[in-house]
Amino acid sequence: MSSKELQERRNRVLPKAMNTASTLNAAWAKGAHFYDQEGKPYLDFSGGIGVLNAGHCPTEVSRAIARQSQKLMHTFFNLLTHEPYVALAEKLVEILPHGEATKVMFVSTGAEAVENAVKIARQATGRSGIICFTGGFHGRTLMGMSLTSKVSYKTGCGPFAPEVYRLPFPDYYHNGAGRSFDAFVEQELQNFRKYLSSVVAPDQVAGIIIEPVQGEGGFYVVPPRYLQGLREICDQYGILLILDEVQSGFGRTGKWAAYEHYDVIPDITTWAKSMGSGIPIAAVMGKAEVMDKALPGTLGGTYAGNPVACAGALATIEYMQKININKKGQQVGRMVMNFFKNLKKTCPSIGEVRGLGAMVAIELVKNQDPNQPDAELTQKLVAKCAEQGLFLISAGVYGNVIRVLCPLVIAQKDLKKGLEILGKTLKDLS
Ligand SMILES: Cc1ncc(COP(=O)(O)O)c(C=O)c1O
Asked: Could you tell me the distance, in angstroms and rounded to a whole number, from the CA of residue 110 to the centre of ligand 1?
């Protein structure tokens, strides 16, 4: 069957909302490449949107999934305990301690992890308010959409969940003009404190949810002092700090968690994507005293923590440990960041290069003006690169950010090749 036939079949039976960013397809994949129906290879700079830090189809993970599927495929964990769930929980607690005692539960998607983080925060505090940020993305369930900022992810899907409050994300590039970075961050923290007097009282707020590096929003990195300031505000008022690490976790920033760059310990965190190499698995982690406040019966789900998914995730993390994924994240990040910084010197359409570890992006603007996003150029760049076998993805509320989420196991020569295609194509188009 050809790519064209596959496209025609999908158009006949799938609703329009199941759009894709391109008309490409993937028939099989390995490492940093996927291959379409005709066998044409593509270098994958999208990594399944941050799912494939350990690469496409790591052999160890495929084998673990096959083994587990022959042994025990399902129990419904709220009825019957199984070992892969417990083993995966132990592994996560070992690599991602949240203070002295940490607990973890599993669900199947990032959005579900966010839903459950909010449920736990509300039960633990007895409060209902959740504060989130402009540009944030937290999934497509009702609470996920309510917390998500970009309107095109939720057009016509309301009414949204109540008791959600949103503050501007501390984005220096767009909003910091005329001030030093430090002065800007202090002002943003003061604005946050004012919000707790003028919009919602702190004793109504269960949690503050923030991505340490915004993913869909366009790879804006939370300034360290800002996150530390949020931690102080949370401690002062008994609010829980919830960090959404769904896109930034598992080596992407050169550490297991992006928050490890900040000297901040969160109360609750959410995880998904690269923890399972593509198998549907997600986690909510937190300080034991917080996690234990949720009542039996309020958390769980039929497939949540399925044995095959847990075995796939455990094998993924063990494989990541074996190959030192965090070191790979640092190496990939350095190479991409250096390349983009050099490219910016000769490419005026790049307004900003930013990122943390291997979560690196360029923002494309007109006339070097942060407030003139160039979504058209971004789209053209993605399409032209695809013609040359490089699969890129964009991000950002205005669709003018190119983000690199390539598998961290990518060979140096492939990374170099992909970046060169990207750089040359951007210069040709600019
Ligand atoms: C930070 C963040 N949170 C939550 C989600 C939702 O995850 P899922 O698509 O698995 O529901 C995403 C997905 O992109 C994400 O990037």
From this structure: 5
